[in-house]
């Protein structure tokens, strides 16, 4: 195996195993920052040794064992080994051999519990959203600071500062690396689900930049969603979020043209949807439904399933979708949910009914600067034959969005609604 092959193997193993290694170390040392440093030391050792000695048969265990030895060395060098033992309730007179054996056990057992503790800690609501996102991708996803910066189109030093401040906040606030008590579980779980879905959404419909989709972020969010659902099989919303992401991700192959231009849902070639992801998403939705009352993510998954089950746009059960949106608005009132309901109502009961809902949202502060409000109004106005007003709304939407692909789409729709003599010769719709 060449050095390059070894390095690729190290990177692949790190992406899969790093969260487990960090989780096990964090429970031992009670410090996420130190746990990551120790895991990174193990990564460096792998990069040095694997090209010479070959990839071990169990590379994840190799990283874990190496990191454990780094932890013991840290305690020795800092002359705090006995203090660390005292902090975790061990007898001061325990011999080091026994301590090392217990540390081995600590790393080998309860890996699932350790990982769940780490997930809840890095997504703790005491952290700002940007900090939770960056820390989750760093510690749970194994992404480098550079990769996170590239994914979110922000400078690398900015991401580094977010990660640093998040770790410091967890330390300063004395956040325990542990599962939340039962009374706090719903709010803490909501924070975890929010972060995973924010990662997915940034990949599915990028808020800024030149790309409409960033599939790598979608893949990372779905991986985290599967881990969470596996660790918390009795939580319906864990399955609901996974269902929502998998059903939405099934459309990714059909969401863009060969040149990268967006293709709207009703215009997509549904034969290009990933039917395996659809089946997996519907199965996850079934698990959520079997566990009890549907929460916001499960309801959104049920809405997405209305599209997934329809082989053509005309076959979509728009009335059911409108009813589900009404229920979702009751569970989690939100202007964005109401805007989506306007679309479903417009399809189920006519554009005039949908426009009434959309018009009622124009004074909402939360939707100021939100490009999809004028875009939805433009679509409904166009269906009512009010082309000039519709074109103006699409023009507003183009000004508000920060995504270049979306801006081009809105401009093209505005241009197509204008009389031919008002079109610029370079506009996509000028030649019909």
UniProtKB/TrEMBL annotation:
InterPro entries for the chain: DUF6596 (IPR046531), RNA_pol_sigma-70_dom (IPR014284), RNA_pol_sigma70_r2 (IPR007627), RNA_pol_sigma70_r4_t2 (IPR013249), RNA_pol_sigma_r2 (IPR013325), RNA_pol_sigma_r3/r4-like (IPR013324), WH-like_DNA-bd_sf (IPR036388)
Molecular function terms, GO-annotated: DNA binding; sigma factor activity
BP term (GO), one: DNA-templated transcription initiation
Family, as annotated: Belongs to the sigma-70 factor family. ECF subfamily.
Keywords: Sigma factor, Transcription, Transcription regulation
The name this protein goes by in its record: RNA polymerase sigma factor
Keyword NADP listed: no
Family matches, as Pfam families: DUF6596, Sigma70_r2, Sigma70_r4_2
SUPFAM superfamilies to which the protein is assigned, alphabetical: Sigma2 domain of RNA polymerase sigma factors, Sigma3 and sigma4 domains of RNA polymerase sigma factors
Domain RNA polymerase sigma-70 region: 20-79
Organism listed in the record: Nonomuraea turkmeniaca
Segments forming domain DUF6596: 188-288
Domain RNA polymerase sigma factor 70 region 4 type: 121-170
């Amino acid at each position: 195996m060449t050095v390059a092959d070894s390095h690729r193997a190290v990177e692949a193993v790190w992406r899969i195993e790093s969260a487990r290694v960090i989780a096990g170390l964090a429970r031992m040392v009670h410090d996420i920052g130190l746990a990551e440093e120790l895991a990174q030391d193990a990564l460096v050792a792998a990069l040095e040794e694997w090209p010479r000695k070959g990839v071990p048969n169990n590379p994840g265990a190799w990283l874990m064992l190496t990191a454990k030895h780094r932890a013991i060395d840290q305690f020795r060098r800092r002359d705090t080994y006995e203090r660390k033992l005292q902090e975790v309730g061990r007898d001061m007179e325990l011999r080091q051999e026994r301590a090392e054996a217990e540390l081995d056990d600590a790393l080998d057992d309860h890996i699932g519990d350790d990982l769940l503790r780490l997930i809840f800690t890095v997504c703790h609501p005491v952290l700002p959203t940007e900090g939770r996102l960056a820390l989750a991708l760093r510690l749970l996803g194994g992404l480098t600071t550079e990769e996170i910066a590239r994914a979110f189109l922000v400078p690398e030093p900015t991401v580094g500062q977010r990660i640093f401040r998040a770790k410091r906040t967890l330390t300063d606030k004395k956040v325990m690396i542990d599962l939340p008590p039962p009374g706090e579980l719903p709010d803490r779980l909501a924070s975890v689900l929010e972060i995973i879905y924010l990662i997915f959404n940034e990949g599915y419909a990028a808020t800024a930049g030149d790309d409409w989709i960033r599939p790598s972020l979608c893949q990372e969010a779905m991986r985290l969603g599967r881990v969470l659902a596996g660790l918390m099989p009795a939580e319906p919303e864990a399955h609901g979020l996974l269902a929502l992401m998998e059903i939405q991700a099934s459309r990714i192959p059909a969401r863009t043209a060969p040149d990268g231009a967006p293709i709207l849902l009703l215009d997509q070639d549904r034969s290009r949807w990933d039917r395996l992801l659809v089946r997996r998403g519907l199965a996850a939705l079934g698990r959520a439904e079997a566990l009890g009352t549907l929460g916001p993510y499960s309801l959104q998954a049920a809405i997405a399933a209305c599209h997934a089950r329809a082989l053509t746009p005309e076959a979509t059960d728009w009335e059911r979708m409108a009813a589900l949106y009404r229920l979702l608005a009751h569970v989690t009132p939100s202007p964005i949910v109401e805007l989506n309901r306007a679309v479903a109502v417009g399809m189920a009961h006519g554009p005039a009914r949908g426009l009434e809902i959309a018009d009622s949202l124009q004074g909402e502060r939360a939707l100021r600067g939100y490009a999809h409000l004028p875009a939805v109004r433009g679509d409904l106005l166009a269906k009512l034959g009010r082309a000039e007003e519709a074109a103006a709304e699409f023009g507003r939407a183009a000004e508000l969005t920060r995504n270049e692909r979306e801006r081009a789409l809105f401009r093209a729709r505005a241009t197509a609604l204008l009389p031919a003599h008002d079109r610029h010769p370079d506009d996509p719709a000028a030649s019909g």
